[in-house]
Design brief:
The complex is a heterodimer of chains A (163) and B (173).
Chain A lengths: L2 H10 L2 H8 L3 H28 L8 H29 L1 H5 L2 H22 L5 H4 L7 H24 L3
Helix pairs in contact in A: 2-4, 3-4, 3-8, 6-8
Chain B lengths: L1 H12 L1 H8 L3 H27 L9 H29 L1 H5 L2 H22 L15 H30 L8
Helix pairs in contact in B: 2-4, 3-4, 3-7, 6-7
The chains are: A mainly alpha (163), B mainly alpha (173).
């Protein structure tokens, strides 16, 4: 048996997995908090992305927006990892076989890699261009890729319930 | 009751209502768009509200934050009205007399009233407190609107299971 499947099977049958699965109210409540987290995470990330793309908030410097919104992005991300893990635990074996779930996880990884690449490349020289109303091409691309991935992740999240 | 019921039944029988029920991909797609719209609407509203409460972006004038984020809030609201109407049309007869649906609509109305009263009163004098500690009324409008909009999301999530479990009423006589 595949080790990842063994883990999912174990998690689904653990106390946490079983409790959420067997309770009538726990899943909807955790899912509601997961929806709150979407607003915090994707909303804050979108503000930065729109600024990088040069579509909105051009009066503010990129580093000022990053300083103000990154804590909210991280807070939202942690909330999503925690609530997402609990939702996953309640149906882990089922999620193992879900293509939509895999696509969602791959898109989250891609969004992380995109943010990392942006951070070590374009953001290094942010002092030179942060007040420009149009950011360098690599920053504009990073913003566009990020916003598309995050909204794709939200869409995939809704589709998991139907897959 | 029966006239309202006849209207909502008619909605479910329109071409759009039928497509929303019959097409297996349409409902989840519109639902996904409704969640994406909630990000635009609630995140922009929350940013403005946090600023009004004096908790976030306090170095930027209130009027500037309102000017920059309000168009996004309206954009999100437009998305929500369109996608929400489509979702409603697919199950109008079950939704309209559902308590959670009524609570959700009442909360949206309440958020609108608070925003309107705020705009017509405290916000008229925004130039006098643009960069200083916001007046109590502005702080209250900020806290209330954040709480209400997140409650609207929770009601929406709850509505999903509640309508799915409610009986389908027969067509009106």
């Amino acid at each position: 048996m595949h080790i990842l499947y063994s883990f999912c099977y174990w998690l689904g049958n653990s106390l946490i997995g079983r409790s959420i699965h067997d309770s009538t109210w726990m899943f909807p409540v955790i899912e509601t908090v997961h929806l709150f987290g979407v607003v915090i995470l994707v909303g804050s990330a979108s503000v930065l992305d729109l600024r990088l793309m040069g579509l909105s908030f051009k009066d503010y410097s990129v580093s000022m927006l990053a300083k103000r919104f990154l804590p909210w992005i991280w807070a939202g991300f942690v909330l999503q990892v925690l609530t997402g893990f609990l939702l996953f635990a309640s149906e882990a074996a089922k999620m193992y076989g879900s293509d939509v779930f895999r696509a969602k996880m791959l898109m989250i990884a891609a969004a992380g890699i995109n943010a990392l690449v942006f951070h070590v490349l374009a953001y290094r020289s942010v002092g030179k261009w942060e007040r420009d109303r149009v950011a360098p091409l690599s920053a504009r691309c990073a913003g566009a890729i990020s916003i598309l991935l995050w909204f794709g992740i939200v869409g995939a999240g809704r589709w998991i319930a139907y897959s | 009751m029966t006239r309202a019921h006849a209207f909502f039944y008619w909605l479910t029988q329109t071409y759009v209502g039928q497509q929303m029920q019959g097409n297996a991909y349409l409902f989840p797609t519109v639902e996904a768009l409704h969640i994406m719209g909630s990000v635009a609407l609630v995140a922009s509203t929350a940013i403005v509200s946090l600023r009004l409460s004096g908790l976030f972006l306090t170095e930027i004038p209130v009027s500037k934050i309102v000017k920059q984020f309000l168009p996004w809030a309206w954009f999100g609201f437009g998305c929500q009205v369109v996608t929400g109407s489509l979702l409603f049309m697919s199950e109008a007869t079950q939704a309209y007399d559902n308590v959670i649906f009524q609570v959700k609509m009442a909360l949206i109305l309440l958020a609108g009233i608070i925003a309107l009263v705020f705009q017509q009163t405290v916000y008229r004098r925004v130039k006098t407190w643009d960069l200083s500690n916001p007046p109590l009324a502005a702080k209250f409008a900020g806290y209330a609107s954040i709480a209400i909009w997140f409650a609207v999301i929770a009601a929406g999530r709850w509505l999903n299971s509640s309508v799915a479990n409610s009986p389908v009423l027969p067509p009106p006589m």
